[in-house]
Amino acid sequence: MSKQKLYLVAVDGSEWGERAAERAISLAAETGANVKLVTVIPWSGYQPISIEELAHRPVARHEEEQHAKNDILEPLKEKNGDQGVDISTHFDWGDPVQTIREIVKKDHATMVFVGRRGRSRLSDLILGSVANSLAHSLGVPIVLVP
After folding, report:
1. What is the separation of C-alpha 114 from the centre of its chain, rounded to a whole number of angstroms?
2. Domain boundaries, the chain
3. What topology is assigned to 6-145 in CATH?
4. Which pTM value belongs to this model?
5. What pLDDT score does 123 carry?
6. For the chain, which end, N or C, has fewer CB atoms within 10 Å of the first or last residue's CB respectively?
7. Low pLDDT (below 50) residues in the chain
8. 21 closest CA partner among 30, 92, 98, 12
């Protein structure tokens, strides 16, 4: 008996993330795989902040979480809900590359889809893109969607 395939899709609210989701869902409809849409917001409890930032941090964190769920994950799920594919969503805080690697391992994802670019071209150039880092560190096939 074969195990159910799971396609994990990293989405960040960018047009590239949306195209990655559409491609994964389209392929899942053909192959019978399930799809998990994942958004990870970078957040470190160790980053230096001022007293003023500390006072607003819980509010900002809650707003970021609501934005990720209500403006990124749920609209993608609703938009593609008629494809006959089981689509789930997951939101997390942390380093996007590390968190996605952990989810891939925990959920036994069989393939990962990610947009070739994210929301910020400048940070992609300076820090290296999440897509590039994942492509060099995952033990499962990754599809970089243009």
Report:
1. 7
2. 6-145
3. Rossmann fold (3.40.50)
4. 0.83
5. 44
6. N
7. 1, 48, 119, 122-123, 125-128
8. 12
